[in-house]
Predict the structure.
Amino acid sequence: MSNFPFLSVLTVAPLVGALVVAFLPRHRPELAKQVAFAWSLLVLVLSVVMWVSFNAGGDRFQFRESYTWIPNWGVSFTFAADGIALVMLMLIAVLVPLVILASWHDAESSKRSVPVYFALLLVLECTMIGVFAAADVFLFYVFFEVMLVPMYFLIGSYGGHQRQYAAVKFFLYSLVGGLFMLAAVIGLWVVGGKTFDWQALSQVDISTGTERWLFLGFFLAFAIKAPFFPFHTWLPDAGGAAPAGAAALLVGVLDKVGTFGILRYCLPLFPEASKWFAPWALALGVIGIVYAALLAVGQNDLKRLVSYTSIAHFGFIGVGIFAFTTQAGTGAVLYMLNHGLATGLLFLVVGMLIARRGSALISDFGGAGKLVPVLAGVLFFAGLASLALPGTAPFISEFLVLIGTFTVNKPVAVIATLGIILAAAYVLWMVQRTTQGTLNPALTEVDGMRKDLNLREKFVVAPLIALIVLLGFYPKPVTDVINPAVQATMDDIGRTDPAPSVGGTVQEAGR
Amino acid sequence: MEETVQYAGATGLLGSVWLLVAIPLVSAAILLLLGRRADRWGHWLGVAAIGAAFVLGLASFFQLRGLENKSVELSLWDFIAVGDLRVDFGLLFDPLAAVFVLLITGVGFLIHLYAVEYMAHDGGRRRFFAYFNLFVAAMLLLVLGNNYVMLYFGWEGVGLASYLLISFWYGRPSAATAGKKAFLMNRVGDAGLAIGIFIMFATLGTTQYDEVFNGVGALTGATVLVLGLLLLLGAAGKSGQFPLQAWLPDAMEGPTPVSALIHAATMVTAGVYLIARSNPIFSANSTLQLVVVSVGALTLLMGCIIGAAKDDIKRVLAWSTVSQIGYMFLGVGLGGGAYALAIVHLLAHGFFKANMFLGAGSVMHGMKDQVDIRRFGGLSKHMKITWLTFMMGWLAIIGMFPFSGFFSKEPIIVAAFEREDWTAWLFGGAALLGAGLTAFYMTRLFVLTFHGPKRWTEDIEHPHESPALMTIPLVLLAIGSVGAGFLLSTSVPDWLTAAGGLGGEHAEHEAVLSHAVITTLSLLVTVLGAGLAWFLFRAGTATAPQPAGVLVTAARRNLYTDAVNEAVFEKPGIFLTRALVFLDNRGVDGLVNGLAAAVGGGSGRLRRLQTGFVRSYATSILAGALLVMAAFLAVQAGWLA
């Protein structure tokens, strides 16, 4: 099976599905939804087959395919996946069907076409898969930019309050970042011998000054995308205005392109510059953890609150990447997956709550647990996953990031650990203000608030809850895939884990 | 000290100790997932799960007794394996874990049984039992783990379960707030524990108990001190010790069986467990031990003083827990043989505290859920069983001979007097003073509740005794309050010696006072304290708040610890948050919006951009193309190289 062109097929399949869905008659919205859902399930099945075919102990990059595109420029359609990309592809394949199922009625409230909404979700899936599967720097850049288009329309056409402002802001921000990257991509092409092939470029020696500039070009684009403090202000607007399903994909997957990009491009291609900039990146990460968590505590809009929690989580990922240890690095990648599951769930549940109430303001809720106990329970569970409680998957990743960072940089790890207290504060405070306390009388007058989760919604949350618990107790299948890829990245930049300061001899005696 | 710790593999029945955690956990999951369908029988499933765990625990205990190496390890699966970090999902069943398992499941079972009746009229009884089972499962994982990460896993699980139970009546704002407070204060401690675990990995490359304990000798004194202080912070958070004690009395917002479970069988004992388990770390540094002893002594006196000023039956009991755990911290801090004494007191306390909390619940059951002891009085005639069983608990906690507290608390006082230097007088004196104060406030509670004239509110006519399902656990626990101390103090220290280092070498120093003198003194202060309280409150007390002096006012306000928390953490925190929200919207974002507007070609352009997407995209592409060309030229010209 490993000769099957998984990556190109996975990239193209959703696009074909999108075309089919887009051309379905506008007055048959149910059919469009069903086709889109079935199509995304097909992609999921194929992804599972790919996961099984991947040999965790094998080559760093697998499923490599290459097709000529613009030979004069050295541009080609090259796809390949390492363990990191594989995990992200799996996350996309799992999230998209659930988002489609969760967004079943979301497009109906807007005056726009319902089939187009689902077609856009599938286009988004195509570009997301493409960006993680690309092994050609130019191809990556193209997907990186094209990805903005479906998301722009999802926010701008189907979003809530202030959607136009949020969509433009999102677009401009990303575009500016993208342009810096484009400049760096072309610079890399020049110094790298006129090729865009990742494998070839990773062998090139670059002078110190150039390397730093090129690093910065990529890093800026990725730091805006992730986003890291202080490039984060577009996310609360975009996350707050986007429909819940799109927001789940935006924060759950799209933003991971930033941290993925750093791991795939900044570290291996510019190892010296990465080490040189690492203290700055760590500082941004650790500021983000504390700063965004404090801001999350102060939010009065559910979706903006979840957006800020994500910025704090991205701080953890950034710290994990730039600590340069296998534990922290593996933790960071695992964090990317777990955050997608946990925050994806949180966004979807919050969306269900908002859809019922017709408002995202926390002050419009209060005591909702009495009316919708199951929904409140799921919200609480998603919150627990978000604050990285042991038994949920995010605990493993946060623990790995912190313990791996502590071995090389104690102050950063200690400050970041304080983030776990703040995380408890923003989650519990939100839960208290929405579902606990005296029942807000206005809630009883809203029809939607009398209906607890229906069967469709249970099907949306159940797989995510199951995955979060499963990976919380037994993360090994995933860490085994991530580990070699992270190890290879650490080799690229020439860092090894520090030995225990006194334990070497003791441990041998103990075993 | 130089002997290495080695654990044997689990065989036979001990290969299934994982069921101890799994049974209550699965039961909790079933109760939560089935929802209302399990409403009719759910509570019995919950009781049965803990009963089964107790039986299994007992069988495992007897199995363990017959073994040569009484420390048995069971590795279930690789939990985390990245680089050099190897964390087992593994369990350790040894004498220390075994006594905790028996306490948690045994006393826990009686509390579960009691709660069936107590919660009978509550619509959420099934949910309650789900959380109850979860609590026991988490606590069992905490004491059964074979490494610090497993301990942390259970540790946070206990925090979660306590949050769920304290805010069980989540419709009450006070309950929701109390739950949140408990969770947050615990997380402060958890962060300390987490950093402690990081230190172990950074220095010793492991978090497994045996490897850490064998490696402690290689660590520098400073590392041991920092590590120990961080573990102590974690322990203080869970056990409600200074400075993280404020959540514990607020935890009274939960239903009364919750208080019994938190205070007697689970949760607050976790901190003592952590220090006892980590005894090779704490024994390795005398400064560290001094800090633990100081925290214990300070907290035990704080608990007494505040407990004496409270009028809420549950809050008095809550502060008495704070105080009694202080004794246990004092014990584990003294080190050597006193570790075992602290564990003995912990076990004995489990019986009499559960007894009294459930007794308080029984009183409330008959008194329309009232809790104000100023409006009780004369209940001994109306609730004979509750009165008699509570009396056993009361005599036990004040350490009256021959009740259980006498055998468990008095040795700790003696041990405190056995310290080498002048601190023997300080800590011994504190422990002795605490004994007198305990006798005073617990007698006040007992007399005001059960004796003296009736001071009931008008709506109460005939307080009734609770049904059998509630009184049977009371009677069993009362028997424990009478006899447990003697039995435990004669058997447990020897049993724990097998744990290696725990309770091993007995004190080498002579006490500054002879044993007999200390025993006489402690009985004397107990009788004095109790007699004074009896004399003052035998005729009842005023039913309205009375003006009071500085000390009593301070005690009523928890010695201003809440006020300090509010002034130092809460208010500045809220201010900081608000300021940052403002700044982020105006400052960081304003700057960026301005920048965006500039890129778009002057302010005001941003608004217009919103009207036409295609045009704006074109503009941006143009700007991008120019930038790219510039970059090309720059690279070609070699400026950047």
Chain B touches chain A through 84 residues (CB under 8 Å). Residues 21 and 140 of chain B are 6 Å apart (CA to CA). Residues 611-641 of chain B form one domain. Residues 599-615 of chain B have pLDDT under 50 and may be disordered.
